[in-house]
Amino acid sequence: MMAHFPLVCPPALKPGDRVAVVAPAGVCRAADLAPGLALLREFGLEPVLSEGLYRRNGYLAGADELRARALMAAFDDASIAGIVCARGGYGSLRLLSRLDFGRMAAHPKRLVGFSDLSALLWAVCRRAGLVCFHGPTVASLAKADPPTVETLRAALMAGPEITVALESAQVLVDGEASGYLCGGNLTTLCHLLGTPFAPSFDGGILVLEDRGEAPYRIDRMLTQFRLAGTLAGVRAVVLGDFTDCGSEADLWRVFEDLLADLGVPVVAGCGIGHGPRNLALPLGLPARLDAALATIEITVSP
After folding, report:
1. For residue range 197-212, what is the model confidence (pLDDT) as tens digits?
2. Sign of the CA dihedral running 212, 297, 105, 150
3. Which residue among 134, 140, 213, 274 is the active-site one?
4. Cβ contact 75:104 at 8 Å
5. Which residue out of 50, 115, 118, 140 is catalytically annotated?
6. Quick check: is 200 catalytic?
7. Pairing state between β 286-290 and 295-299
8. To 5 degrees, how large is the angle CA 240–CA 243–CA 246?
9. Residue 296: pLDDT band by 50, 70, 90 thresholds?
10. Beta-carbon count within 10 A of 51 CB
11. Residue 115 annotated in active site
12. Is 167 a catalytic residue?
């Protein structure tokens, strides 16, 4: 069953809470996670490493069954207050048919990740009816700038309201819009089309980012979204970093060709994605985008 927006926002964490570190996707190394684990401890949280965190199965962090079991164990464990993914890479898609979204809904917890993990975040939002947080992984915290760290702290431990400043935003189409936050990694979400988890962003403020995709491939994926009706009803588009995706001029031309005629505000160049700045955003919560002021105002249910 697909949940309707707005979704349930899991309880905020508090100092002393235990937070599970899980690896639903790519292989993890202890050295890569150490700086991020230290930051979580600075928040006053106690990181708990999941079963088999450092396993390797080719490019995956262990077999599908192990990764799915570790994620479900984190939701089931009453002593765990939140979940932060160790890293992206690839592998989240392989877990979706193995997860029990009903059990997740019964034990709501804040889940944080991005990139390949966008598939997992989308599925948990729609199938478990839980707000998820698009933000840095434990591994990416090693290179995160201070605003990113602070928005992660807010994503895990926030009060009732958050305002995210998109300081580097460039306005493609001006305007204001309200809707629920949705989206994530363009490539990963595009791979969900034609599956039971296919995205629809009707009524949403759509956030997109990517890495290592040439402009023509960005064009192809956005065109597929249009042809599939995925962009129908979108209230606004927020384009984050498109790291190593070709020239800014070529990307801007693609965005103008495929997004400017939607009749909604569009901002680009926002600090969301694979760069040092990856501002954490709660997917599934009502928000308001002001393109001219380059801000997103979010109300988080206590």
Report:
1. 999 999 999 999 999 9
2. positive
3. 274
4. yes
5. 115
6. no
7. antiparallel
8. 115
9. confident
10. 15
11. yes
12. no
